[in-house]
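--- STAGE predict ---
source: upstream dedup step, 1 unique chain passed
mode: sequence only
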Amino acid sequence: MGRETPLEGIVVLDMSQGIAGPSCGGHFAEHGAEVIKIEPPEGDWIRNLGAKIDGNSSPALLYNRGKQSLAVDLKSPKGRDLALTLAERAHVVIESARPGVMERLGVGFE
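--- STAGE serialize ---
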């Protein structure tokens, strides 16, 4: 008997950093959702937290398990357009920026 994946077919765009948002995205991935993580070109800041294994910190490996990851510069028009294209395909979008940041980058809720 196969493993049940109740969220199979659900696409999640994870534009969060740190622990809370990435942890949420990790739970979606655990239950079968396709999770696409967008990180800034320098990477999610959690990648530098703690000891590293093959260049990745253990918290980054834990909270970003099962995700596809892309480095995207949301400050550039090309990066913003890519994020908006991915958001159109997504059923769920996760972000954890301070209020107003995503709107200023042109990828807010509207």
